[in-house]
Prior knowledge:
The chain is an alpha+beta fold. The chain has helices spanning 3-27, 67-98, 104-110, 114-117, 127-135, 162-173, 218-233, 255-265; strands at residues 33-39, 42-48, 60-61, 151-152, 158-159, 178-180, 184-186, 190-192, 196-199, 206-212, 242-246. The strands form four sheets. A four-stranded mixed beta sheet has the order 6-9-10-11, with helices on both faces. A three-stranded antiparallel beta sheet has the order 1-2-3.
Amino acid sequence: MSELYQALSRKKQELEDVIRQSEEYLQTAPDGQLWVAKRRNCNQYYCWKEETKEQYPRGRYLKNTEKDLTVKLAQKSYYQKMLKKARYRLKRIETFLDDYEADELLNVYTHMHPARKELVQPIYLPDDLFVQQWEQVTYKKREFAPGDQEIFTEKGERVLSKSEKILADKFYMMGIPYRYEFPLELSGIGVIHPDFMLLNKRTRKEYYWEHLGMMDNSEYCVNAIRRIEYYEKNNIFPGKQLILTCETKSVPLNIKVVETILEKFLC
């Protein structure tokens, strides 16, 4: 089921709740409509009714002692407007959902003859084919320096640290597509290599993951802050497109926190 269909289904439920609450209130609401007039910098309230319009053409003036009635009439007016808007919007959403086919665009390609598929470059891919092509992108990784530890992930990739291996293995185990140190060009600093670039298969949104593994080192910490600032200057913000995890010698990477982040952003 597509994100659009799910979002509209949730909105449909919200509108149905608004309609229900509005109808329940209006069943017991007092007769009449509230009119408001400004006199000498003061608000004056009137109750207008069809049956008393000859006696009170502009409505009966509501005294201060009738505050409860004034409030109920104001609330009534609010619910009437909400009910009208919600019914209109609900009807349009229901019409759309009745005619909605989630895989309509996908089927243009998937229903083609295999020989024709070989000749076509689709602009809208099924999720599995999109992920496959995303994972097959080739790129030049940053070279390891002499003396760097030889640490390999379950996927067979070499990484710089044990914490990066933990992260990469968790991504792999949870079926989250990722690229290790995929180059990213940022204005003001040039090309950098984020620890990971990840893909949410459901939304097709990409995220950058930086693990700051030596935050008890003052020089490292300053450089990390500067790096984050460059992300922000390029409209890549922590908690949005950028995910940050940290650790020190005394506070190691918390895998439970990692799992929570993954469930929130990438599952």
